[in-house]
Amino acid sequence: MLRQFLSGNSELDPSKLASAAGLPSDPAAVAALMQQLQNAMQNSGDGVDWKVALDAAQQISSTGAVAITPGQRSALEQALHVAELWLDEVTFVSELAAPPRLLTRKEWTTATMPVWSQVAEPVALSIADALTRVLKDQAPEELSGMMASASQLMRNIGGALFAMQLGQVVGQLSTEVVSGGDVGIPLMGDQQAALVPQNLEDFGEGLDIPADQVQLYLSVREIAHARLFRHAKWLRLHEISSITEFARGITIDTERLEDLATSFDPANPEELRQAMVSGALIPPKSESQLQALARLETTLALVEGWVDVVTAAATVRLPKRDAVAETVRRRRATGGPAESAFSTLVGLELRPRRLRESAAMWQAVTDAVGPEARDALWSHPDVVPTSEDIDNPEALVARLLAGTPEPDEMDLALEDFFREEEAGTGETGPDGAAEAAQSDRDPDAPPVV
Length: 449
Description:
Layout: H1 2-6, H2 14-20, H3 27-42, H4 51-62, H5 70-90, E1 101-102, H6 105-138, H7 147-173, E2 194-195, H8 197-204, H9 211-231, H10 233-248, H11 254-263, H12 270-278, H13 287-314, H14 321-334, H15 337-346, H16 355-376, H17 387-391, H18 393-402, H19 409-439
Parallel strand pairs: 1-2
Helix pairs in contact: 3-7, 4-6, 4-7, 5-9, 5-13, 6-7, 6-10, 7-15, 9-13, 10-13, 13-16, 16-18
């Protein structure tokens, strides 16, 4: 059936398949889809070929893209320099090791695809496993010997289709994002700051705000975001781990998939499209997934809230900062079409649900103990505020103002124990241990070396 379809001798219209999969159905895109699926049939490897995603994303990001003009480069480099100086006045987090970058849409796509594929791979493999499992379960016994090669074929084709969908999403995102940290997770390597000038200019259109103020505000936000992830070195791994843990728990409802395959009409793939878009093939979230999702939502809210508070303090000189800030918050709260597509594809929303509450908590901490003590809370995952702290910032402030509690009897006993251990180790050491061993031996025995 697959070979007939790819050779053009099938009832299923390739453009309808593309539409059902959420891909463009124009002739050029359909031709690219068919070529990628043919390549997948000939691929002998396992896993997903993420170059398919990169190629699709780069093609979309290149459409309608414009080069960075010398004027844009000069203005944004100046804005980024001023942003660093302003942040130095209000934060106590590490400075960036590398200078910020100005990226075209295609460059942003290329730079961020490794993280997107890392996030999406567990879902792609889950889908491929479900397809091969259904294939093996439904195959007649006399065909069981053929199932190994057929299963590999289905994995490759399913992976290629998923990769093209991811490429479509990331390519569309490249036309919407204004910076490297715009979607809340650290997409750039080495915690580097980056701006996309073409999209930044589109962001400012119709706001009735001077362009230089928009540039300065967004530059401060991006550098604050990148600095935080450089300062809290554990934070990036924490976020990515929560996302991949959530994604690994995604399974496919094979019974629903079987029903869909039985009733599927090649001439009308709308049911397939609805099943994919609605998420009907994905069972409810497991308990471990809900826990990973809760951790991720809290972390996203903490990061975005901190960035909001720090940016507000650093941009106090900008007359229109509140207007730009409100536009940013609304944009983050609603998301764009590509972000919604990613949510459907991976089953995960990347929008902080309690952004305003988190920002209020960080502001209360700043007012109570100052920016240095506030930023010290990012030093370790054990001291960073929790979801309960977002709900009750007064209790967090009270703890911070109370300082380190006096050690109790158990703490004192442990301190004495470790102090004695260290003293004992320090007195003997390598040479002391040898001397002690010699003193316990027969005095006529040869010395211990």
